[in-house]
Design goal:
Length: about 100
């Protein structure tokens, strides 16, 4: 099981300076076209190989374009014991800052 938090809730948490980890699971070209500042990038297809790069105890917000791939990532990661939160609506509903490029 995993929780969901809408983009505006995540943005509010960031604005309150909460320490949160954001993981973007979109493809490389999508990432470069705009992502949340400070987010980490691991495309969905590479998640299984990157488990050692993640802390299972750290709450991690999973982001994609609309919430579908992040939901798949959350299903997988939560089944592996990770503390994850899906951001439904994804980047299509993100109103916060965006960083372009790598």
């Amino acid at each position: 099981m995993y929780k969901e938090q809408k983009p505006e809730v995540i943005l509010d948490r960031m604005n309150r300076k909460e320490h949160i980890v954001i993981l973007d699971v979109r493809e490389h070209d999508e990432w470069e076209s705009g992502h949340i500042p400070g987010a980490k990038h691991i495309p969905l297809g590479q998640i299984a190989r990157a488990l050692n790069d993640m802390d299972p105890k750290q709450e991690t917000i999973i982001v994609c374009r609309s919430g579908n791939r992040s939901g798949q990532a959350c299903e997988f990661l939560s089944s592996m014991g990770f503390h994850v939160v899906n951001m439904p609506g994804g980047m299509t509903q993100w109103t916060g800052g965006i960083v372009y490029g790598k």
